[in-house]
Design brief:
Recoverin, domain 1; membrane; potassium channel regulator activity; about 260 residues; metal-binding; EF-hand-dom_pair; 4 strands; about 5% strand
């Protein structure tokens, strides 16, 4: 597997959609357009790379994937419905499903699989806690397993969603206990897990107190009514108006 420093994201597939840090004032009135990500760009995502690593070469006959997609026990929705729910093309869904089936014959991904994936892509750090949090964000119904449809819907948001959609997904990740609020402790737990996973061999070097500093800075701006928690409304409004927060949250680009 490639080391983490080589796992970078395409500019149009970043979590917050603006790796160039364009000032928001310059983007007012600019309508978001659906990006066209190539297979190469998709492969920069850890989860996509893991899935597609076991698929047949591009251009091979994929009719079997389409047939099985509509009949497999854990995939009742079918290709057409998933194409309508996501921003993936038919061929992309076929490739993702073929790889998903090869890696997860049962049709489900469990938390241990997520931990294995991220330990392979980030061997210089400890990815266990971050993989746990990320798995819970994908596991929409909280049953301890991720179906293919949940997997690709989440990937579609992260890779091709609007800024608003990506921020809502990020809020769900930070809201560890899913009570609709982010506490300072929850935000610190997520930030620390990311820093732990990135390890001590990154450049620039990550300082031990960096997570706490990030959280303190974020909370001062996000917790507008100073009640000790951040609501989804506060989170969305602050992130979309504050260029510094948007830029700081680009750390997510290297860990999806």
């Amino acid at each position: 597997m490639q080391p983490a420093k080589e796992v970078t994201k395409a500019s149009d597939g970043s979590l917050l959609g603006d790796p160039g840090h364009t000032p928001l004032s310059k983007k007012e009135g600019v309508k978001w357009q659906r990006p066209r990500l190539s297979r190469q760009a998709l492969m920069r995502c850890c989860l996509v790379k893991w899935i597609l690593s076991s698929t047949a070469p591009q251009g091979s006959d994929s009719s079997d994937s389409e047939l099985e997609l509509s009949t497999v026990r854990h995939q009742p929705e079918g290709l057409d419905q998933l194409q309508a729910q996501t921003k993936f093309t038919k061929k992309e869904l076929q490739s993702l499903y073929r790889g998903f089936k090869n890696e997860c014959p049962t049709g489900l991904v469990d938390e241990d699989t997520f931990k294995l994936i991220y330990s392979q892509f980030f061997p210089q750090g400890d990815a266990t806690t971050y993989a746990h949090f990320l798995f819970n964000a994908f596991d929409a119904d909280g049953n301890g397993a991720i179906h293919f449809e949940d997997f690709v819907v989440g990937l579609s948001i992260l890779l091709r969603g609007t800024v608003h959609e990506k921020l809502k997904w990020a809020f769900n990740l930070y809201d560890i206990n899913k009570d609709g609020y982010i506490t300072k402790e929850e935000m610190l737990a997520i930030m620390k897990s990311i820093y732990d996973m990135m390890g001590r061999h990154t450049y620039p070097i990550l300082q031990e107190d960096a997570p706490a500093e990030h959280v303190e800075r974020f909370f001062q701006k996000m917790d507008r009514n100073k009640d000790g928690v951040v609501t989804i409304e506060e989170f969305l409004e602050t992130c979309q108006k504050d260029e510094n927060i948007m830029s700081s949250m680009q750390l997510f680009e290297n860990v999806i």
